[in-house]
Design goal:
globular; 589 residues; 14 helices; alpha/beta; 10-stranded mixed sheet
């Protein structure tokens, strides 16, 4: 009998984390392992340990075949259900299948399965009508205790965000429902590289002209329209030629080169500059048989250059690849890691993998995925401690020369609260309880509750919250109202009184005063500004005007100020903080 393959320590930990989780819960779970970490071995071991029927799903036949081969290497026999592999076997205890083939033959999967394993599970959408969800729903009808496990290197999708809600280290990824509930094991890319499980990436700055995509409009996911990208690239053919010439020069001592293009037109142009007999082009419209042949020739090193557009970022395994050239823009840390990961597998004689980013993406390979589109090119992941529970959040932000956080874009603390016993997370209404501290918030005018800045209804009293766009629109219609885009504030302290002047971007000014000797005004000031002090990283309760004046550099400024005419002066009525809407803020283009 063939002995089970020896698992690496982290692979064994991932298996044990899965067993421990499903002994306690039927909630769906995710394992996060970097590209090249050997997910197929983890799958094989879990399938080997299983006593009841298991279905292993993935989206491409190559991964179906790879996962099946690892399981068979244990000396066990599993079935394959994949039209692309011309096999449709569903009677084995363990079946390795393509999601498309199972979805098209649901009537053959009416047995009772105990576990569904989904490889490359970041492709699972939350839509009930999706192929994955239809399969899971059918299997749940046969077994309401069905366990669902996903494996991926990148548990984040630009269009969806995080694919799970809760992380085993005690924090929340999303307040919304997701395809998976828990991440139960995660291993960073740096762990794999530092311990020699993956090839070291040699990150080099391009020595020739790069593309500049910064002027292009981004969608809400931080990506660019193909038409805009093609238009820009068509004006920079000299840049493309220079880049390809440098790639060929640097590739002289390299074995396999993968080039990631921005669009199909761009990929064709790149291919035209490369030696024809050494180059393959693969896009989403490439005939599947031709694609298989080209990839096979590349893997057999009959071809040196493989140019592709968004089709070889997952499920592609060519360990000899030792040069990655990135000629496409992306703001996604996950996609960037997937791209670079194509060149990080170990191979005999391979010392490193050269990685050159010609698109000016400014993505740090080892940075964690923040979970939001990058708000500006100079943003970076920053650690922000919650004043409420102490949790160390990771948000997009900016730092000064000494590494201190000077700005961040976080909204709510991601920490999970502990139960009274302090061992397990606290549970409320059947859900893990998230810390309710908000760094940015919209106050409910009815009950004073703090809500997300995009909320339409208060999460406490459920009443409608006035939309800031409606506030601005209504104020702009009034003849006796003034609305300014606030570009900054200045303070004057005189005894117990504090005067705040709001400066508009065009020189307009509005002012108001708070008398700290009067409890009502002191409380009002602290409610407006103290809670938001230092961007809510260090909220304060001020007792005097002088105390505020000393720390005026950390005072928050609203984005808009609305005032109404009162005979001979303007009375400030509304201050809109953390604005998100259709109106332009001060000094924005």
């Amino acid at each position: 009998m063939t002995l089970p393959l020896m698992l690496r320590p982290y692979q064994q930990e991932a298996v044990e984390a899965t067993l421990n989780h499903f002994r306690k819960s039927d909630e769906s779970a995710v394992i996060v392992l970097p590209t090249g970490a050997g997910k197929s071995l983890v799958i094989a071991e879990l399938a080997r340990l299983a006593r009841r029927k298991i279905l292993v799903l993935t989206h491409v036949k190559e991964l179906v075949e790879q996962n099946h081969a690892k399981y068979q290497s244990y000396g066990l026999t599993g079935g394959i259900f994949s039209a692309g592999l011309k096999r449709k076997e569903s009677r084995h205890q363990v079946t390795f299948a393509s999601v498309q083939s199972v979805s098209a033959n649901l009537d053959q999967f009416r047995d009772e399965y105990s576990l569904v394993i989904i490889d490359e599970c970041h492709r699972v959408s939350g839509e009930e009508t999706s192929q994955y969800q239809r399969i899971i729903e059918l299997l749940r009808q046969q077994n309401d205790a069905l366990k669902v496990l996903g494996l991926t290197a990148t548990p984040y999708r630009l269009a969806m965000g995080w694919i799970y809600r809760y992380h085993y280290r005690g924090f929340v990824r999303s307040e919304d429902d997701k395809p998976f509930q828990y991440c139960i094991f995660e291993l960073p890319l740096s762990y794999m590289i530092n311990r020699g499980y993956l090839t070291r990436p040699e990150l080099v700055n391009a020595a020739v002209a790069q593309y500049d995509f910064s002027a292009l409009a981004q969608d809400r996911f931080g990506e660019y329209a193909e038409k805009d990208v093609n238009q820009l690239l068509s004006k920079h053919q000299r840049v493309t030629r220079a880049i390809v010439e440098q790639v060929m020069e640097l590739a002289a001592e390299r074995k396999g080169v993968m080039i990631f293009a921005a669009t199909v037109d761009h990929a064709r142009e790149i291919t035209g500059y490369l030696p024809e007999h050494e180059t393959a082009l693969v896009t989403g419209v490439t005939d599947l048989n031709d694609r298989d042949l080209l990839i096979q020739r590349f893997k057999q090193r009959q071809l040196k250059y493989l140019v592709n557009v968004s089709v070889l970022t997952t499920g592609f395994d060519a360990p000899h690849v030792d040069f990655i050239a990135i000629l496409r823009p992306t703001q996604s840390v996950s996609l960037y890691q997937q791209i670079v990961g194509r060149g990080l597998r170990l191979d005999e004689g391979k010392q490193d993998c050269l990685v050159i980013d010609y698109a000016g993406n400014h993505v740090n390979l080892h940075h964690p995925e923040v979970g939001e589109p990058k708000p500006s090119p100079d943003s970076e992941p920053v650690q922000v401690f919650c004043p409420g529970c102490g949790f160390a959040n990771i948000f997009w932000g900016k730092t000064d020369g000494d590494g201190r956080v000077i700005e961040h874009y976080g909204r709510r603390c991601q920490g999970l609260l502990e139960s009274a016993e302090g061992v397990e997370p606290a549970v409320q209404n059947g859900r893990l309880q998230q810390c309710d501290y908000r760094f940015r918030f919209k106050e409910c005018p009815h009950c004073g509750g703090e809500n997300d800045i995009a909320a339409r209804n208060c999460h406490q009293c459920r009443k409608a919250i006035i939309d800031p766009d409606d506030q601005l629109r209504n104020a702009l219609k009034l003849k006796d109202a003034m609305v300014i885009r606030c570009a900054g504030i200045s303070l004057v302290a005189d005894g117990s009184k504090l005067r705040i002047t709001y400066h508009g971007e065009n020189g307009e000014e509005l002012s108001e005063s708070f008398d700290f000797s009067k409890p009502g005004q002191r409380i009002g000031f602290n409610k407006l500004f103290g809670r938001r002090f230092a961007k809510s990283q260090a909220p304060k309760v001020f007792s005097s005007a002088a105390e505020v004046f000393e720390l005026q550099a950390l005072m928050p400024a609203p984005d808009f100020v609305i005032a109404r005419k009162q005979k001979h002066f303007w009375l400030v009525q509304e201050r809109i903080f953390d604005y998100q809407g259709s109106y332009r803020k001060a000094n924005e283009v």
